[in-house]
Sequence to fold (245 residues):
Amino acid sequence: MSETMIALVTGANKGIGYEIAAGLGSLGYRVGVGARDETRRETAVGKLRALGVDAFGVPLDVTDDRSVTDAAELVERLAGRLDALVNNAGISGEMGPGWEQDPTALDLEVLRTVVDTNVMGVVRVTNAMLPLLRRSVSPRIVNVSSSVGSLTRQADPDTEIGPIMAVYAPSKSFLNALTVQYARQFTGTNILINAACPGLVATDFTGFHGSRTPEQGAATAIRLATLPDGGPSGSFFEDDGVVPW
Fold:
């Protein structure tokens, strides 16, 4: 088996996901670029290879069971195991005026769609990749979350947390809670799992609002994906340290 470390990043064709893939690649990881759109996926792979990254494309729709199963089989064929899984793929859901999501006027289909991607998608991918992660000496899982999923910050009237986001923010709270449950399940194993907040990054996801670059947004996830043995698990981090639940 190759000693090269193997990573898979979902939603890696652009933005923060691409920069996570690039950052791991610069550290010598062989990186699977998970993405639904074939053209964007292969464009990202080409850009990464031009940077010297050993990248390969992984067709992956996190909302589709068959797609996720096929992705796991592809990673097994191409790499044989997985050392780091970064669950980055996510959506915000439709926004209303003022870039808000009013809880009194929620479209339940939007809520279902966001949860299917941001929460159920993480479960699908994580559980499908677990047999490959268990073959690693030091497996790491990172769930890309957001500080808007912090109930502590959301409930504090003195904390500036941005607009009301009654779909996206709870989906990240749900993801955070799941991260803790996975960490409890992995107690006594060599699997470390944590959540990462990239901050407000200027990408198409945010309408290019935000003071942070995608490279800056990727930094915490890269650090958590490369934690040494004995590192934290079941925690939520941003650049400045731990984010309160």
Summary: The two ends are 39 Å apart (CA to CA). The helical segments are 15-26, 38-50, 65-79, 108-133, 151-154, 168-185, 214-225. The chain is about 40% helix and 15% strand. The mean pLDDT is 94.
